[in-house]
């Protein structure tokens, strides 16, 4: 169990993390999400006692990290895969860690086997690929057989087999009753791995809820409906009926309809009554990415823009077709779509109380608006310093 | 258009790439997949004439790379994010490249703006985070407004907004008729981005096919039915020779059928269906199935076996590539 | 084919936009001038203590270049970094993707860097000479004296060629650390030590720095130097052969090896 209470970190005038309170519970994989520069790394470092909070505190199993008796046996962390002395072999690296923590040497060979590095255990880690470095970092985290595990971007550099393996490893660790806290930028990966989510933006808590709740709170489910291609009039008829019944109908690129606002049985009944045959009627839940984009849209640092191409109007290569604007038939998922009212903490006032039920008591609504306007602009360039350290 | 003919690369006795022949066509995003050590990077480097093939050749729009006049105007590549001089500013790094290929200087500011790095353009790239370095690399690929773009693991280090952006960028570039070739280990990301796939394992071509085909061929696909008149539906299916398997919560799974035929069948018999959906496996599962055996570092200790029970769930929460897909 | 002026312009941008260029070249100039000046001042103060033989072969031109022993190391660092950082930063792949004609790429880079090194070398040489002569007082010589102008221009050429040689070696070794690890001890220690060892000095005479340095001597057997079986231009020629060999080696490596 990891517990943060009113965690705040300032670097000079910059506020990296502000009044963050959350709990990471055992028995589940908790995902830690947020745009670059939102304070994720700083929070992780404070959990591990690498940075001192300016105010507030964070405990692991009731103790601050630095006061944990034999911390390596209780907490394992993968922060930076390359934080290894390159000249040492993988085995010796782990051995030195094990000796520091009084862990028997045979545990080293055990974890090397777990991560699949036993064949390269004697090689210097300097020659390791990013994926192998990542596996070595995971081995180090597992060394003390800890109850609490922290992973920062664990699948970085791994190949598909490795990604699948890490995902299953984390689920297995959680199912053994351990506390697993994972930060990642890969929404599709998180959707498959995490049970619970903690989302922060500009150093403040945006959400603390289950993955399922997070998705349904931040996006709309829809149904995909297809009518016989041979009978376009059926499609028109159905569109009319569905719209009349209060549904919204959009076109998908392949000619199917995307229907929101009506349950599947209702669509089925309406089609049946209208005597329209269906070739497809499938339920779709919005992706975690979409939900995440809607929630965090105000808290992004480097926003990309359209490519203007103004500087390159000349030499048109042979076979070059002039670019045509791509008009999506279906609204693009993500931050283009306005968030549902009341769901985006940045929608109304510059800063409002986080939506998460668990977080509400920790962040009194009266306190939040005061520091945020001052803090927010300062945070925009945090990523740089954070990663440079 | 990129064409590979019998491309082979040996390092001593090890064959990294083994008689690889394929074409990367314009107008679509082509995904390049393979386990670690499959020879993806070596292939991409040979495509850019950085590594010399032992035999075989690569043609870019019919020409050898070295014969391209000002190659950045034909092909832009992101190979590794940190392939820039750290002591030079982002702007100057791009300026050197632009000048070498006679690309107007204002294009530098333009691509920096495109990737969202204008505010740090004058900062030394040494201090960049991986995500920022990645954006700088993408800017260098876009610099010459090339018809062919190659990206190796483009989403590395990007945050969700960046991932979303690069995915849409690649799709938009392909929609303009450009050739987009992208390698990645992130199957879920590939499933959302690529239209066509080239899969290699141990240096050899394993598949060169459309995304939909690849998934269909390498995994189980079935139709899921849900109906308030389940008894009648089951009898009806049985009568017409369909094998229906019950999978809990009143749903039936039917292998080897299309939603079209089942929809017609239900309509003919006035059956109400509450769900009629085609279910396909994830790209990841299909990939695991195909490349099992071609993996270098196998992990042990957890009961993970690609393609068996540990695969992605079929349930509603598991994002399948089909959920956000545009019909392929 | 890639446009050579465009590539030259690009390489010039590369060189002027990294800080290592200014600090290596500035230290080459300052270290040489300062150390030469110091030795000239010392020589003036202790001239009377020299033996008659030493006084007879006193070479006021050569002594005003004595700081080059240290200053040339900064030139070595400059030459190595110009080529080596392409490899250490990974920029080489980006560069070669932009300019796949490897000869054009390498020789454009070397031409720009060598031109810059030559300009700084000449400035260093003239500054050292004038400052040194000013400090030598009555023992001084002038630019108009026999062979002096040749020696002063030769000093600039020597600095430029040292940088060129380093670029060739770095292109062969494809690593800044490795190149510096070999070149710095070679020029600063090995070459100096061997030239003092009886048998070895016959070989050391043909080292690039030993041979090339003869161009800066006006008096053939000046203070503390050995008689060489070649003249000043012959010495520079030997150095040129070394430089050419290093450049050809560097070119073959970049042409043949995978980037």
UniProtKB/TrEMBL annotation, chain A:
Family recorded in the similarity comment: Belongs to the ABC transporter superfamily.
GO molecular function: ATP binding; ATP hydrolysis activity
Native species: Streptomyces purpureus
Biased composition (Low complexity): 344-361
Domain (ABC transporter): residue spans on this chain: 2-227
Protein keywords: ATP-binding, Nucleotide-binding, Transport
Coiled-coil features, chain-numbered ranges: none
Biased amino acid composition, Basic and acidic residues: 379-389
Protein name in UniProt: ABC transporter ATP-binding protein
Annotated spans, Disordered: 306-389
TrEMBL record, chain B:
GO molecular function per UniProt: ATP binding; ATP hydrolysis activity
Residue ranges of the region described as Disordered: 300-328
Record carries keyword Repeat: no
Transport among keywords: yes
Family, per entry: Belongs to the ABC transporter superfamily.
Cross-referenced SUPFAM superfamilies: P-loop containing nucleoside triphosphate hydrolases
Keywords for this protein: ATP-binding, Nucleotide-binding, Transport
InterPro entries the UniProt entry points to: AAA+_ATPase, ABC_transporter-like_ATP-bd, ABC_transporter-like_CS, P-loop_NTPase
Limits of the ABC transporter domain: 2-227
Cross-referenced CDD domains: ABC_BcrA_bacitracin_resist
Highest taxon, organism lineage: Bacteria
Provenance organism: Streptomyces purpureus
Protein's UniProt name: ABC transporter ATP-binding protein
From TrEMBL, chain C:
Keyword field contains Transmembrane helix: yes
Pfam families: ABC2_membrane_4 (PF12730)
Keyword terms: Membrane, Transmembrane, Transmembrane helix
Transmembrane segments: 23-45, 65-85, 106-131, 151-173, 180-197, 233-254
PANTHER family: INTEGRAL MEMBRANE PROTEIN-RELATED (PTHR37305), MEMBRANE PROTEIN (PTHR37305:SF1)
Protein name, as recorded: ABC transporter
Lineage: Bacteria, Bacillati, Actinomycetota, Actinomycetes, Kitasatosporales
């Amino acid at each position: 169990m990891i517990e943060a209470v009113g965690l705040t970190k300032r670097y000079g005038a910059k506020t990296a993390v502000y009044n963050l309170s959350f709990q990471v519970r055992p028995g589940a994989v908790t995902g830690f999400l947020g745009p670059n520069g939102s304070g994720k790394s700083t929070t992780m470092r404070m959990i591990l006692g690498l940075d001192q909070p300016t105010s507030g505190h964070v405990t692991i199993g009731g103790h601050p990290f630095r006061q944990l008796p034999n911390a390596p046996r209780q907490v394992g962390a993968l922060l930076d895969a390359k934080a290894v002395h390159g000249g040492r072999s993988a085995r010796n690296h782990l051995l030195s860690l094990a000796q520091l923590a009084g862990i028997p040497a045979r545990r080293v060979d055990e974890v090397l086997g777990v991560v699949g590095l036993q064949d390269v255990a004697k090689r210097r880690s300097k020659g390791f690929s990013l994926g192998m470095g990542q596996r070595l970092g995971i081995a180090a985290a597992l060394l003390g057989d800890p109850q609490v595990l922290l992973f920062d971007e664990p699948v970085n550099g791994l190949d598909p087999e490795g990604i699948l393996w890490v995902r299953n490893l984390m689920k297995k660790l959680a199912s053994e009753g351990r506390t697993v806290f994972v930060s990642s930028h890969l929404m599709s990966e998180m959707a498959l791995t995490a049970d619970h989510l903690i989302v922060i933006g500009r150093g403040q808590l945006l959400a603390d809820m289950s993955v399922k709740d997070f998705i349904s709170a931040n996006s709309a489910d829809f149904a995909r409906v297809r009518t016989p291609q041979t009978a376009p009039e059926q499609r028109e008829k159905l569109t009319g009926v569905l719209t009349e019944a209060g549904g919204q109908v959009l076109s998908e690129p392949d000619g199917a309809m995307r229907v929101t606002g009506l349950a599947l049985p209702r669509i089925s009944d309406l089609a049946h009554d209208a005597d329209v045959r269906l070739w497809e009627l499938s339920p779709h839940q919005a992706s975690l990415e979409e939900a995440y984009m809607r929630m965090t849209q105000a808290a992004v640092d480097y926003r990309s823009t359209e490519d203007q191409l103004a500087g390159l109007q000349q030499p048109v290569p042979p076979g070059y077709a002039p670019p045509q604007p791509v008009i999506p038939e279906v609204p693009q998922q993500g931050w283009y779509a306005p968030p549902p009212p009341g769901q985006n903490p940045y929608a109304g006032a510059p800063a409002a109380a986080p939506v998460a039920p668990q977080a509400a008591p920790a962040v009194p609504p009266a306190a939040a608006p005061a520091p945020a306007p001052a803090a927010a602009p300062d945070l925009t360039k945090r990523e740089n310093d954070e990663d440079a350290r | 258009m990129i064409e590979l003919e019998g491309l082979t690369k040996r390092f001593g006795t090890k064959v990294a790439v083994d008689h690889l022949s394929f074409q990367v066509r314009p107008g679509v995003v082509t995904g390049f997949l393979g386990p670690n050590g499959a020879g993806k990077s070596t292939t991409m480097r040979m495509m850019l004439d950085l590594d010399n093939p032992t035999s075989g050749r690569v043609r870019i729009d019919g020409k050898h790379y070295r014969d391209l006049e000002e190659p950045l105007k034909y092909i832009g590549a992101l190979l590794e994010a940190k392939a820039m001089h750290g002591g030079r500013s982002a702007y100057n790094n791009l300026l050197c490249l632009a000048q070498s290929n006679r690309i107007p200087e204002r294009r530098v500011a333009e691509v920096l703006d495109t990737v969202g790095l204008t505010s740090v353009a004058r900062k030394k790239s040494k201090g960049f985070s991986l995500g920022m370095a990645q954006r700088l690399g993408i800017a260098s690929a876009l610099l010459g407004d090339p018809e062919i773009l190659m990206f190796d693991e483009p989403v590395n280090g990007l945050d969700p907004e960046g991932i979303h952006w690069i995915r849409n960028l690649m799709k938009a570039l392909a929609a303009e008729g450009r050739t987009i070739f992208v390698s990645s280990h992130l199957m879920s990301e590939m499933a959302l981005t690529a239209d066509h796939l080239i899969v290699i394992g141990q240096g050899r071509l394993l598949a060169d096919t459309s995304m939909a085909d690849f998934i269909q061929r390498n995994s189980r696909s079935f139709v899921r039915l849900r109906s308030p008149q389940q008894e009648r539906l089951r009898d009806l299916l049985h009568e017409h020779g369909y094998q229906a398997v019950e999978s809990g919560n009143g749903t039936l799974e039917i292998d080897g059928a299309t939603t079209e035929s089942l929809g017609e069948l239900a309509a003919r018999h006035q059956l109400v269906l509450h769900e009629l959906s085609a279910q396909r496996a994830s790209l990841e599962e299909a990939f695991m199935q195909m490349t099992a055996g071609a993996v270098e570092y196998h992990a042990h200790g957890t009961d993970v076996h690609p393609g068996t029970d540990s695969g992605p769930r079929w349930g509603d929460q598991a994002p399948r590539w089909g959920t956000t897909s545009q019909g392929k | 084919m890639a446009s050579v002026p465009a590539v030259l312009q690009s390489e010039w941008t590369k060189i002027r936009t990294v800080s290592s260029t200014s600090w290596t070249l500035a230290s080459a100039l300052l270290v040489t001038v300062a150390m030469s000046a110091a030795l000239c001042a010392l020589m003036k103060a202790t001239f009377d203590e020299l033996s008659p033989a030493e006084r007879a072969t006193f070479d006021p031109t050569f002594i005003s270049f004595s700081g080059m022993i240290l200053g040339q190391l900064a030139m070595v660092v400059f030459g190595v970094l110009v080529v080596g950082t392409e490899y250490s930063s990974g920029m080489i792949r980006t560069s070669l993707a932009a300019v796949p004609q490897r000869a054009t790429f390498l020789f454009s880079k070397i031409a720009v860097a060598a031109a810059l090194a030559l300009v700084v070398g000449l400035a260093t040489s003239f500054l050292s000479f004038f400052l040194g002569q000013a400090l030598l007082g009555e023992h001084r010589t002038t630019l108009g004296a026999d062979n002096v102008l040749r020696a002063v221009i030769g000093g600039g050429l020597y600095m430029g060629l040292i940088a060129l040689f380093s670029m060739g070696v770095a292109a062969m070794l494809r690593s800044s650390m490795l190149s510096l690890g070999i070149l710095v001890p070679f020029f600063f220690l090995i070459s100096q030590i061997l030239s003092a060892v009886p048998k070895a000095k016959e070989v050391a005479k043909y080292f690039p720095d030993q041979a090339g340095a003869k161009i800066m001597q006006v008096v053939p057997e000046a203070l503390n130097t050995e008689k060489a079986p070649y003249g000043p231009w012959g010495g520079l020629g030997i150095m040129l052969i070394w430089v050419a060999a290093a450049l050809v080696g560097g070119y073959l490596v970049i042409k043949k090896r995978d980037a």
